[in-house]
Write a structure and sequence with these properties.
The chain is mostly helical. The longest helix has 30 residues. It starts with 10 loop residues before the first helix and ends with a helix. The mean pLDDT is 79.
Length: 41
């Protein structure tokens, strides 16, 4: 349990990690939406 480098920092860096993860999920969902719109054509 000593290798928790992501959680041993301040709360600001933890929030930035969460926001970065949400941005990645948003980009992946946008790619899937574009793929589905291309399939409908």
């Amino acid at each position: 349990m000593k290798d928790t480098t992501l959680f041993s920092w301040d709360n600001g860096t933890f929030i930035m990690v969460v926001v970065f993860g949400l941005v990645i999920v948003g980009i992946i969902s946008a790619v899937f939406i574009m793929m589905n719109s291309d399939r409908k054509k």
